[in-house]
Amino acid sequence: MLISATAKLNSVSRDYRYVARKLADEKRIVKAQFVHGLATTLGEHTVKSRKFHFHEHSTEGHHAKTVSDKKGSEEMLLSGSLEMVDGLDKQDGHKHHPSLVRFMIACYYAIVSRSEVVCYLVIVLNQMKSASLLSLPLPLMAFLWGSLSVPRPTKTFWITIITYTEAIVVVKYLFQFDFFDWNDSVPVNRPFDPPRILGIEKRKEDNDYALYDLLLLLLVFFHRFMLKSLGLWKDTDRSVSVSAIQQQEPVSHEEQYVTAAVRASEHTTTAPGLITSGPPEQQPGTSGTLELSALPVDTASSASRCYDDVIPGQSGLEESFVHLSKLFDGISRYVEPFRNFFENLLHPVYRVTTDVYAYMFFCDFINFFIMVFGYWAFGTGGSEDGVASYFQKNEVPVPFLIMLLAQFALIVIDRALYLRKYILGKLIFQVFIVFVIHIWMFFVLPGISQRSFVEEKNLPPKLWYFIKCIYLILSAYQIRSGYPTRILGNFFCKKYNYINYFLFKGYMLIPFLYELRSLMDWIWTDTSMNLTNWLKMEDIFANVFQLKCQRRAEEEYPTPRGSRRSSLTKYGLGGVMLFAIILVIWFPLLLFSLGNTVGQTLLPHDCTVELSLGGYEPIFKISAQQGNLRQLPYDSWVRLQAEYKSSAAAQAFLANYDAADVAVVTLNGNSTAIWTVSPPSQEALIAELNRSAVPLRLSWAFSRSVDNTNAEKVVGNERTVQISDKAVRQSLAEMLHGTPNNVTVPPILPRFLLVPRKGKSDVIRALDTPGMGPYRNLTLRLRTGAFNNLSARSEWWEVQEHCTDSYPYPFLRDDQGSCTDLSLVVFNDKVFPQALSQLTGYGIAGLYTTFVLVVSRLIRGFMAGSSFTIMFDDMPNVDRVLQLCLDIYLVRESRELSLEEDLFAKLIFLYRSPETLIKWTRPADQHPLA
After folding, report:
1. 717 lies in the same domain as 606
2. In the predicted model, what is the mean pLDDT of the chain?
3. What are the residue boundaries of the Piezo THU9 and anchor domain, all occurrences included (predicted)?
4. Does residue 151 have a cis bond before it (omega within 30 degrees)?
């Protein structure tokens, strides 16, 4: 991995290293020629040149070597072959160094060769750190001026960046003093506080207020040094005429000499300020020295006097035309640089096209997911849970939807411009995106979220902005270089190896991505195919590309003929697939059987018990909360297991739980609500008790906090018994008449209860013993009394149970309350964590009917049905078919639409004719194609 990264970095800096080495060699040659120093006059240069040539003839061997080196340099420069350039990698490879050192050297050269990009990134980081109006012009200049300059940012641009950055540092430093009023007050935590948005806020706890500005200055000066070392700091003439270049013809040395002499003589005779000096042999046309005399100072006035002599008495209209002409000349003087800028950008003389659309798409793709999972930082009142909290509520905020649609629309527009190769539209789109992004990120978004962009917790917008700036740099590079003439195939289809194969497989698995790309390509590409044929073509190419990758892998990793497959392959590939299928079959049962192992303990926080007689008002109601709901102590849990060690059913049940899953509920025996039944209803109840059996119903309910789980919030159940004993009914009737006595009702209160994840809370019968059943008797008594502040008398019911140290819970002993309280032991099922809640929500039957059956159909489609596609999947040589597909793409991009139809018809004929397809896909060394 380290060696591959080093090779990639060396390829990035290859051009820089080649140019730097050639410049160093040429400097040494120039220094060798001017051994006596540089000449100041033409005559001195001639004398020193003659001496040098005399010395050169005397050392003929050295001259031959110099000419040979010069010729070799010219051949390398003209050929530009990859072999010669790769020689630099061998020379600069530092193979005697360790791999890590070579990697660091490659990183250095990559940074040096792309130092302007490093400056752009530091400008972006500076804006992310300050997010103020003072630093905002820097990224705007970087994205709208520097990165769009052809062929490179001008000297004026870098001087402007240096000057403005120095001004920022000075302004920030001046506003750090305390004599400004706003520096004495406490900073207001508002994103649009004037000192903060202007960038002049005093940071008392942050002394690096100008750190990134100084870092930017350092890097820009370093970039300036690199440009000077390459001779690129001074701008040259950028307006080269194409016609002038095309009309240039080779001229002999004699013709050049005569032409120069004639031009010099003509220039000498016509120019009034050019005067020759020296003897007659140094007249123009000879090797003399020319001197320029200054023009008269009052040239304009003399010209106007001559003009007055020709046309006396200028009119006012003519003077206005003169002033208007001067005005237009002044305007054009300032407009001309802008016109030249766009002319060089849109219509350059030379253009080396490139294709970085895939990298721009990856940037937008990453930003799309940043916006999805970091929506809490892009909206109002959002929590750090992100958009998942909205999805759990089945709600989609409108601002969230608008941002996603806008991001998606930008991707579609960028794809359309790419397919149409519309540079002017891309430039307009670039300018629009730059302004919209900076207005939204630094003005609109802080106003919506009420959070400053520079806050440490505000990470998603920072990451989104940084990746978008990388997109803008790539987009500017695409505009400068121009779109490629031919856009052929998919980005992953450039090579035929396992990496591209699996990347293409992943691309095909992304829902709707392949379909969207195919439709957009058909809409914005000039073609003669209809949509059906276009989709056929894309499907054929996708299949042929995958076959090419497979055939390439078979060639690189051949298997000997007639040899058995190794055990490693069988147990590696086959064993993994076998284990996966078995896991899918038993996954639902395994998941729910391990629920109490991998689940989380969830104890109830409230327990409510009600007791009602017949269909009348409940006679008893009590709730247990907080301290009355406690976890079973571990010592009691050990005694409980020891008590049921002889019961296999009880041990099997207890194996699914531990002490943390058991809760002890203590209920007060006195009802918390008074019995407010009316006298007529009370008389009716007495009559019903004297007449027939009356139902007695006990209900219980448990409430839990079910955040991020699939459990039900409230779980409960009830039990009803019939009071058929006449003596019990008469005792109840007498108690309702006012006779103070106790009445014991049939067993109705459970001993052990189970609180499941979902469903009803049932009684646990696995813990029954011969001496103790699942239910207990209750003793009822109607109490009557008055309160101090009330004159009326109130009635309430008191409920008690029979209890001793060994009944009903011998394992509790000292932990159980007095007999005036009611006790319940509750076993709670573990709940699945949030990651498994979606699966367990379907239940066992739901998982088998959805997950297992769907996976089985996918596996069946992979293992069966291949006999119908043998003729297409087992082509031994797909090179000719692949080349035919590439030819179709080529003629389409060349707008040879008739030829596109013919080649596509040929491809369809191949797939319709098995015999012809067999001939086309034979290995090339067996039978040549007839």
Report:
1. yes
2. 80
3. 354-593
4. yes
